[in-house]
Design a protein that fits this description.
Layout (H helix, E strand, L loop, with lengths): L1 H24 L4 H29 L4 H60 L6 H15 L2 E3 L5 E4 L12 E2 L2 H4 L3 E2 L8
Parallel strand pairs: 2-4
Antiparallel strand pairs: 1-2, 1-3
Length: 190
């Protein structure tokens, strides 16, 4: 009987440790949840202030006795409910933005995989497609085919729609190319 108790305590301890360590490792991000917490606190407090204001005003016999309850309870409570509702709404908007960003990243990954598959299908025997693209990128940098805006940190092809109508473009040299990132639209290095 003691061996059973020993087994349950030894298996229960790692679980307790995992449970206690869980919130740190579970990905709970207070930047994402503080709006929900603030809304969940403000809305009920606002309704409570409205109810207390109504109860205080209901027991006043004269209008002069009711006005302070209506102002302090009603308006303060209404402000709490509205601000709490805005916090819920702001969190909802953040979630929409976050989901759209994740969807955008997934679409970009699928598009890159599709582009690789098409390039491999169209590639011809001599050089592998990736090596040929790298060779073309190095040759393009040597030939001065990459451009950037004067204050830009990304380099582009001359045909890139981002810099197509830009008046002042500078040619990117091979030395400057190492410190710059490629454009994600025209993908000059791929």
């Amino acid at each position: 009987m003691s061996s059973v108790a020993t087994q349950t305590t030894t298996t229960a301890r790692p679980r307790l440790r995992d449970v206690l360590a869980g919130p740190r490792d579970s990905g709970l991000d207070l930047r994402n949840t503080w709006q929900i917490v603030a809304g969940a606190v403000l809305v009920p407090l606002g309704f409570a202030a409205i109810i207390l204001g109504w109860a205080g005003a209901a027991h006043g016999r004269v209008d002069q006795q009711q006005i302070p309850y209506i102002i302090s309870g009603g308006l303060l409570g209404l402000a709490g409910v509205i601000i709490g509702g805005f916090f819920f709404w702001a969190h909802w908007l953040y979630r929409i933005y976050d989901q759209a960003d994740l969807h955008h990243q997934a679409v970009l990954r699928e598009q890159q995989e599709f582009n690789r598959a098409v390039l491999q299908a169209l590639g011809q025997g001599g050089l592998p497609v990736a090596a040929a693209a790298a060779g073309e990128a190095a040759g393009a940098a040597a030939a001065g085919e990459f451009v950037a805006t004067p204050s830009g940190t990304n380099y582009h092809l001359r045909e890139c729609p981002i810099v197509a109508n830009h008046g002042s473009l500078k040619t990117v040299t091979a030395a400057k190319l190492k410190n710059m990132k490629p454009c994600r639209i025209c993908e000059p290095g791929s």
